[in-house]
Write a structure and sequence with these properties.
Number of helices: 4
Number of domains: 2
Strand content: 35-45%
Shape: elongated
Low-confidence stretches: 1-31
Helix content: 10-25%
């Protein structure tokens, strides 16, 4: 028998550990779906796998449609049909493409080989009844814009809100209050003013005023 050097022994142990660890990877990946089912009462767990489930399906964080799916204990998802797509911004052709892919059955988790339509991963959330499909498009800057850009040269506008209250009576001097609130924009600058002018009436003929806000 040949003698082993300390380095050779270490390499042998490392190789054995790698070989033993390799088959366990699918088990770790599949544990995600199984662990979610363990949170259910026992009488409901049997209705979690291999039965139709209603879910919301999102593609790159955008609504694709409401659907019926089947989950397998082998950590796979199979689409039965889309039931409601009225609020989806995707075209029917785009939805049909993913319907055909999902109806063939697909493993949950990250996609490593043979990934259709630039697929990155498929996830399922029991808590939210949500199927999330992520592709390489989710990382692109050309995503759907959800806001309006501000004008490059600024803007020009004025908003005014004013209020007038009057009071008085027979043989009484009229009193009242006038309030003005205004905001405006000129170019890239904004202005605002909030002031009030009042007079009590009667023997008090003094005019009072206050500026609560004034800036640009």
């Amino acid at each position: 028998m040949f003698s082993r050097t300390p380095i050779a022994g270490a390499l042998a142990l490392l190789l054995c550990a790698s070989v033993q660890a390799a088959p366990t990877a699918p088990t770790v990946a599949a544990a995600s779906l199984l662990s979610q089912s363990r949170g259910l009462p026992k009488e409901f767990e049997e209705h979690f796998f291999d039965v139709p489930l209603a879910v919301r399906v999102e593609l790159d964080q955008q609504f694709l449609g409401e659907a019926m799916i089947v989950l397998g204990r082998d950590h796979r998802i199979t689409l039965l049909e889309f039931t409601d797509t009225a609020d989806s911004a995707f075209t029917p052709a785009r939805r049909d493409t993913w319907q055909q892919i999902l109806q063939q059955g697909m493993a949950l988790g990250g996609c490593e080989t043979g990934c259709p339509e630039q697929l990155l991963a498929v996830h399922y959330s029991l808590e939210n009844s949500l199927v999330s499909i992520l592709t390489q498009n989710v990382e692109r800057d050309a995503a759907t814009q959800r806001y309006y850009d501000q004008p490059e040269d600024g803007s020009l506008g004025l908003i005014i809100n004013n209020q007038l209250n009057l009071n008085g009576g027979q043989d009484q001097d009229t009193g009242g209050r006038y309030g003005l609130t205004a905001s405006s924009s000129i170019g890239n600058w904004s202005q605002a003013v909030n002031l009030q002018v009042s007079r009590f009436g009667g023997s008090d003929t003094k005019l009072y005023h206050a500026v609560h806000e004034l800036y640009t």
